Amino acid sequence: MVSTELILALRDLNRVDKFYIIQFLISELAQQETNLIKSGLSYPVWSPYDATEAADMMLKVLHAAKAQDHE
Length: 71
Known about the structure:
Blueprint: H1 4-12, H2 15-34, H3 52-69
């Protein structure tokens, strides 16, 4: 949780310093994001290819909704 003192200190900064803080925080976030995916490792990615059960379920739901609309 962010302290009240920090919020008050940020409010007192001039425009240039506020932009510097924003740039610093964005840079920190970007560095953390690059650490999420490590090179040389494989990561599973879901694909709808061969997801016949999901397609069947979706068709049943669509047909049921269509029948309900026509009642």
